[in-house]
Amino acid sequence: VSPDEEGICSGKYFTEAGLVGLLEQAAASFSMAGMYEAVNEVYKVLIPIHEANRDAKKLSTIHGKLQEAFSKIVHQDGKRMFGTYFRVGFYGTKFGDLDEQEFVYKEPAITKLAEISHRLEGFYGERFGEDVLEVIKDSNPVDKCKLDPNKAYIQITYVEPYFDTYEMKDRITYFDKNYNLRRFMYCTPFTLDGRAHGELHEQFKRKTILTTSHAFPYIKTRINVVHKEEIILTPIEVAIEDMQKKTQELAFATHQDPADPKMLQMVLQGSVGTTVNQGPLEVAQVFLSEIPNDPKLFRHHNKLRLCFKDFTKR
């Protein structure tokens, strides 16, 4: 919406009716997108206008639509799909301004890595030639010196929305966890000798947290990354995280309503079964069989013991 040349806002949208029309369109679009919580926010602006005009007919329509929106929130609990996110990095002088830029792409829900990879490969392959474009298959930090200057490289990684512990207090519902997102995370396992996976006692993990310049959902489906931080987890911290995740899965499976025996069976097998040598038993044997010599590790050692206490309770 832009004012005309004299700077006087005389366009058809610069009237009360124009504003009401735009807001109604917005509400309808949010409804189509399955973002019913946002429908409520838009109508919060509209209701006072109609109340001031004593327009009972409009108010009745709006309250009808609000009822629809709220009942959909109740009925579609957990069934709504919002989006899948990927980090895409561009490397190589062929990309011009894009060189060394990273973006977070928002894709339709349940997009697989192979799909977006195929699409971007096709798009940039057409532009630069398929022999010039190369997709980097891992998510390790890219070393520019090792790249061929005559090629264009794309690195694609699946990322998940990331929240600090304090944020989780406000982000309670599934909608809250998928709306107004600016931070994303991906994990890369590594060992000190360069392999990705190793024994439990040598398995480190790098968590990379990306912050975008705007929040999703946004007008564009890709937003550039403005900040990046890395957290390195030591093997015992990796074990603590794994145990916490296992305990959460157990808690979820035992409290499911209605109960789901198949799910519980799967989680229990993953927790107790010894087929996989990286199970909780192995974790306990590696990290808890003796008290560590390094006082710095006491806190982690204790935390892991408490994790196991919680786990056995579950």
UniProtKB/TrEMBL annotation:
Q: Which domain of life is it from?
A: Eukaryota
Q: Name one GO molecular function term.
A: guanyl-nucleotide exchange factor activity
Task: Write down the InterPro entries for this protein, in alphabetical order.
Answer: DOCK, DOCK_C_lobe_A, DOCK_C_lobe_C, DOCKER_dom, DOCKER_Lobe_A, DOCKER_Lobe_B, DOCKER_Lobe_C
Report whether DNA-binding shows up as a keyword of the record.
Answer: no
For whether the record's keyword set contains ATP-binding, the answer is no
Q: What biological-process terms (Gene Ontology) are attached?
A: axonogenesis; small GTPase-mediated signal transduction
**Record domain DOCKER: where:** 1-314
Keywords (A to Z) from UniProt: Guanine-nucleotide releasing factor
Q: Which family does it belong to?
A: Belongs to the DOCK family.
Q: Which PANTHER family match?
A: DEDICATOR OF CYTOKINESIS DOCK, DEDICATOR OF CYTOKINESIS PROTEIN 7
Write the protein's name: DOCK7 protein
Q: What is the lineage of its organism?
A: Eukaryota, Metazoa, Chordata, Craniata, Vertebrata
UniProt gene name: Dock7_1
